[in-house]
Design a protein that fits this description.
binds thymidine-5'-diphosphate, alpha/beta
Amino acid sequence: MYVVLEGIDGVGKSTHINLLEKFYDSKGIKTKRMAEPTDSPVGQLIRQELKNENSVNETNQQMLALLFAADRLTQKDEILKYKHNPDNLLLSDRSFYSSICYQNSYSITPKWIYQINQQIPRPDLLIILDLNEKVAMERCQGDEVFENLQFLRRTRQNYLKLLRYNNAVKVSAYGNVNQVQKEIRKVMDNRLFKG
Ligand code: TYD
């Protein structure tokens, strides 16, 4: 099975993926985690770009969307192995939904993002961790270009629009780590491990 965690910078995706990995592994489910950007050469190029203040410009966002799509493809075969095995669990910190929500500007349509990510497997479950951008900003200490209030406000709204999809569930991330973790497990148990 394949689960993607999404949400704006600072919502706690990596903390929760760590805890989920340990928990499901201890229950005998072979669990693996992955994250985007990856450690591939394309992923490293992306990380450099994310420090560049021009990255929010239209042309740079177009370029980033293509780089993210290429970087994502480096994980495609691994994802497929897990997705079609009901006894295994793959947890991913971000996928192409990040491109839809972050690389969203007047020159880039979601349709184009879907097209360039057409070959990427879709998750069985998409968990959107939701938090007000002010609280999220206080929780992240990074120096990446997208970590600014106005940008994250728009990005959060874009995430909430994804809730129209059947595989998407919102989990509120305002509580403490234990409360949020409990809620995520409840969603996963209901959607994936019931019966
Ligand atoms: P992030 O999850 O913050 O990684 P880390 O904590 O390791 O630095 O991701 C880096 C940034 O990349 C984040 O601001 C979101 C952005 N991003 C996009 O803009 N588009 C994408 O498709 C992806 C995967 C990430």
